[in-house]
Structure formats: C-alpha cells, structure tokens
Design brief:
This protein has 19 helices and 24 strands. With 609 residues, the protein is an alpha/beta fold. The chain has four domains: 116 residues, Beta-Lactamase (2-Layer Sandwich); 226 residues, Heat Shock Protein 90; 126 residues, Response regulator (Rossmann fold), CATH 3.40.50.2300; 112 residues, 3-Layer(aba) Sandwich (Rossmann fold). A hairpin with a 2-residue loop joins strand 11 and strand 12. Helix 12 packs parallel to helix 14.
C-alpha cells in the first residue's frame, strides 16, 4: 500500500505539534524551529515567531538565559546528549522543565546544532515538595517518639538487671524482651524515614551505639521467627570509636545479620551472636550463626571482591559485596570461618581517639550534689537505681531531682561560688514545652561540671557545641553502663610532676639527681597510678614509660604508655610525656610529647618541657 505524501506530512505535523515541547538551534544558539507548544510556552503565536532569536531575546531573566546557554553550548561542544532539569521564570510564573537535549551532527559527524525535548514537571515538583515536607514532619514525630521511648526503656533495663532471685526468671525475660521490642519498633520506624547519607565522608562513629540500634531493629524485623539474637559488648568496648560512615556501617551490619538469619536451619531455633571487643588497638566485631555454613566458593568470591549472585537460597548470598566494600572503606580487615556448625565473620577496624565530647565516666566527690534534670519521670528512676550503690558507699553524696530547666537555673545561681564547685549537673537536652534546653541551662548556670544526657548524641552540631563549652555528652542508651567514680580528693592534689615507671631504681635515681627540689609523685606500676589519677588536676605533668612489667618481671602489663596516654587525654589531661628508650617512629599522637632516655639534656629538663 502506497503512502500519500501529503497525508504523511500532515500526520507527521500533527504528531509533532502534539508533543509537549520541541525545538532546535544552531551552534550559535539561534533557534531554527520548534513545535507550536514550544512557541506558545515562549509567548509567541506561531512557531515561526521565535525562529532567528536566541534564549537571551526570549527570556527576561538573563541569569537563567545564561545558564541555559552555557548548558546547551557544553552539549554541542562535547557532542553528548544529557537529561537535565531546568527552572525558568515564564510569563505564567516559575516553571520547572525536564529536558532531553541531543547534539545534531552532519554527515561527517560534525556537531551543527542541538535538538531539545522538554516536559513541564512543575506540578510534579510541587507534589514532591509537599511529600518531602510531610515526610520531614513525620520524621520529626518519629524522632520525638524515640526520644520519649528511650527513657522508659533505660529504666526497664536497669530494673531487670537489679531484680532479685525472688522474681521468676520468666518474668525477667518477659520484661527484657518487652524493652527490646519497644526499642526495635522505634528504631525500625526511624530507619524507614531517616535514611543515613551513604555519600557522606567517614566520621567519628560510636560502634556500640550503631550496633545496638541495628540489632534492636533486627529483633523487631524477625519478631515472628524463632531466631535468637545475642549481643555481647565487652566493658572496655562500650565507648570505642572508629572512622567510618555511619549509614554505610549500619547497612553492613544489617547485611551481615540478614545473611546470618538466611543461613539458619528452618527446623531449628537458630541463633545469631554478635560480639564486640578490643584487641591490639582494634575494634573486633564478630557475627556468628549456627546455620548451614557459608560455601567455600562463596567465601572465595567474598575474599576476592567478586559479586555474589546466588541469591538467598543457601544464605550469605545477599549484600556480601557491600559488606566487603564497607569493611575496606573503614580501613578494616575481615576473616571468614565456616563449618557444618555455622559461619563466623570477624571484622577488625582501627580504633581512633575517643572524641572529647563523650562522657565515658562520671567523677564525683563524696560531698557533691548531683542535680538530675529531665522532663521524663522514668529517667529519674533510672538514675536513682544507677546511684543506689554509690550513695551507700558515700552517704554524704546528695541527689536532687528537677523537671523544669528554669528551676535548676534559679537553684544553682542562688549558690555561692564555693557551693557551685560541689554541683554536678546531669541534664537532658530536650525539655519539652519549657522554652529552654539542657545546653542553655548549662550556659545560664556557668556549670563546668556538667554532662548532657541525650538520645541525640550522634548529632554533629550538638557535639561541636558541647566541645566548645568543655562539657560532655552521654548517650541516654548508656545510662546503665556509665562508670561512676568516687574520689575523696578529686582533682585537688597538686604536684610538680607524676612519674609512672616500673624500674623503681631508675625513677628514684632520676628524681634524687635532678628533681629533689620538686614535689614528685612516683608510681611503679600503671594499675595503682590509674586508680589514683583522678586526684590530680588536669594540667598535672605526667611522665610515662613505653612498656610496664609486673614487679616480679614475669610478664608485661597489657596497657602500654601509649594506651595510658590515650586514656588520660580522653579524661582531659593536657601535659603528657612519654620517656622512652626506643625510637617512636611516628607512633606518638599529637597530644603526647616524646623524650628519649638516651638524651641527657631531656632527662635534666623534664620539668621544663
């Protein structure tokens, strides 16, 4: 059947003008044609009316015209097509267009112009913006719910840990599982509407907090299964930090746990055990299941970074590439052990210095008054139970509870400067409907001994704010884990230097020879020194050795001088020296001064360093 050319062109013209917006221009940016819809959008009656004009002639907004001209020129210069979103002020107001633009080439491949197709997506953008605002409002509500839930969960956990044997174990287990369930629901809800940025750079990340959030979410996700999740965090691993992107790290943990669950035998009550510990300055995370065991060919692909495509049929087939990439992006290492009894994946990340904003412990004196400020009744009960054993040891230690920030301000500011020295403030960040927050309470009372107790501990703005104010943050999730130290001479013992050296004859000789005119406290083992360290002011000069042996010389202490210096730095000590017989070879951090035992000038002038 032959086609009538006249009808053909009429049909082509009809289709052409039925399209949203079409135009083409030459290399100089001069429009050569377009359809009727494009002409009317430009404000013309016919498509011939804008031929011969440039975008500068058409748009009043010359800044937008310049942007479009640059984009189009780049497309023709580079000879490649793009899809781009453009916002333009038109006669009908501001509009957003989704445009697809292609370079036009002649028979020799030379670019001679540009062809563009556009669609008005302004209404769609409005709906997107409304949806975004609604999601943001919902996210705010979810965060508030999590804030409100954290305190009662903390209380339940502390109560469960203190229940006597008179309470049936089944009741204790029920309570504990209820707390886990509530935490899981809130964490999973937040996870849906608060996607962590996977593009952000690595930052300081509190391992235990990220882990607990993911495990709570997984418990809720698998609540209808028989899977048992066990979490064991060593005491010295509660507050360790690594350098990682929090979103990527959490996704890695999520994938690890998902793969472990997938591998469990359906007929058995499977178990996924997660352990976090510390070894040789590394955070060690172990995820172990009692499932089918990862096949050797999967392990080989995992080790080599080859994408695994087997799926979930045998377990361990989903997310392994992301897990490996996430480990390597945090300068980590991994090891996989698989057997008929299950799979164990061990991951190591280098530990970094604990940020100054984190409260790892609370140091008090027996005559202190601890002020607890929180608008939630349950957190007051949590603190009472936490301080129960402490007040038995020190009956003179007083605990005062406040629910209103302004009441705390009035009380503290009514005290004399000497009385204020005996005040230690534990305050929530958010004080609902009070017109004031915990940071402002600290600021208005000029409290130097204060800790911000909040479920928003990972907020970088708050971290920066407390660092500037020389105060610290305690994640509300760790109220039951925080160490509370009671010292009769907290920060009051003033000496010229403290020397920690396991060779008694050596330090006695050095002090007698060069520093007999100074007041020097000497310790011959690191344990006794760390037990007493809180009695010294933070500007005390402390001299450390590299390694320490027990008095009988049988073995070395686990902690080195570098480990002690790291701990002291986190406590706030500022004058730290390591006196070493070996070349530090760049091992010493910036907060630690190095002096060599072979340097006689340094030995004579330790008091002047």
């Amino acid at each position: 059947m032959e086609i009538n050319l006249n009808n053909y062109f009429e049909m082509l013209d009809l289709l052409f003008n039925a399209m949203p917006f079409v135009f083409w221009k030459d290399r100089a940016g001069v429009y050569l044609g377009g359809n009727i819809n494009q002409a009317k959008e430009f404000g013309f009656e016919t498509s011939e009316d804008f031929i011969g004009k440039t975008i500068y002639d058409i748009l009043k907004d010359q800044k937008t015209a310049l942007t479009i001209d640059i984009n189009d020129s780049n497309i023709m210069e580079e000879g490649r097509a793009i899809i781009i979103e453009e916002t333009i002020n038109t006669l009908n107001g501001e509009k957003t267009y989704l445009s697809q633009k292609h370079p036009i080439k002649d028979s020799k491949g030379n670019v001679i112009g540009l062809l563009g197709f556009s669609m008005d997506v302004s209404e769609l953008k409005k709906f997107e913006q409304i949806a975004k605002l609604q999601q943001e409002k919902f996210r705010t509500i979810v965060k508030q719910v999590m804030h409100d839930i954290t305190s009662p969960i903390t209380s339940i956990n502390i109560i469960v840990s203190k229940l006597s044997n008179n309470v049936p174990e089944s009741d204790r287990v029920t309570l504990r599982h209820a707390a886990m369930r509530i935490a899981g629901i809130s964490q999973r809800l937040l996870g849906r509407y608060n996607e962590d940025s996977l593009e952000a750079e690595n930052g300081n990340m509190l391992v235990s907090l990220a882990l607990l959030q993911i495990i709570n979410e997984k418990r809720e996700e698998h609540r209808n299964s028989d899977v048992l999740f066990e979490v064991d965090i060593d005491e010295d691993a509660n507050f360790i930090f690594i350098k990682h992107n929090q979103g990527i790290f959490k996704r890695m943990l999520s994938n690890l746990v998902n793969n472990a669950v997938d591998a469990l035998k359906i007929s058995d009550s499977g178990k996924v055990a997660i352990h976090v510990g510390v070894h040789a300055s590394n955070a060690v995370i172990t995820v172990q299941d009692n499932g089918l065991g990862m096949p050797l060919h999967i392990i080989e692909k995992f080790n080599e970074g080859i994408a695994v495509t087997e799926g979930k049929k045998e377990g361990h087939g989903v997310g392994l590439t992301q897990i490996r990439d996430a480990i390597l992006s945090g300068n980590g290492t991994f090891k996989v052990h698989a057997s008929m009894d299950g799979t164990r994946i061990t991951i190591r990340f280098p530990i970094i210095a604990t940020p100054n904003w984190l409260a790892k412990e609370i140091n008090l004196s027996p005559n202190d008054t601890v002020i607890i400020l929180d608008d939630d009744e349950s957190i007051h009960g949590s603190w009472d139970r936490r301080f129960e054993s402490i007040t038995k040891k020190a009956p003179t230690l007083k605990i005062k509870h406040f629910y209103e920030g302004n009441d705390v301000i009035l009380y503290i500011n009514s005290l004399s400067p000497e009385q204020k020295k005996d005040i230690f403030l534990l305050t929530d960040l958010e004080l609902l409907e009070q017109g004031i927050n915990g940071l402002e309470v600290i600021s208005q009372t000029n409290m130097s001994r204060a800790v911000l107790v909040t479920s928003y501990s990972l907020n970088e703005d708050k971290q920066l704010e407390v660092t500037k104010g020389s105060i610290k943050i305690l994640p509300k999730e760790f109220v039951s884990n925080i160490k509370i130290k009671l010292d009769k001479n907290n920060g009051s013992k003033k000496v010229d230097m403290v020397w920690v050296e396991d060779q008694k004859w050596y330090v006695d000789d050095m002090v007698s020879r060069y520093y007999s005119h100074l007041k020097v406290d000497k310790y011959y083992d690191p344990i006794s020194f760390m037990d007493d360290v809180s009695q010294y002011p933070l500007d005390t000069k402390i001299i450390l050795d590299t390694y320490y042996e027990e008095s009988d010389g049988s073995k070395q202490y686990d902690m080195t001088g570098y480990d002690i210096a790291h701990e002291l730095y986190n406590m706030g000590f500022t004058r730290l020296i390591i006196l070493t017989g070996e070349d530090p070879d760049g091992r010493a951090p910036v907060y630690l001064t190095v002096a060599r035992k072979i340097d006689d000038h340094a030995l004579r002038n330790l008091d002047k360093i």
